[in-house]
Amino acid sequence: MARPVSSQPTEAELAILKILWKQGQATTREIYNGLSADRETNDSTTVHHCG
Prior knowledge:
Pfam families: Penicillinase_R. By secondary structure, the chain is mainly α.
């Protein structure tokens, strides 16, 4: 189920944006690795937010 429209990113979206801001660009695998360094995640979480 999609979340309501918001002008603020979710916590997960913000984590992805922080990786992109730090690296400038990143593959899905690089984002996954960056996220998994901070918490447990799986490929579907990363793909859902990046895909």
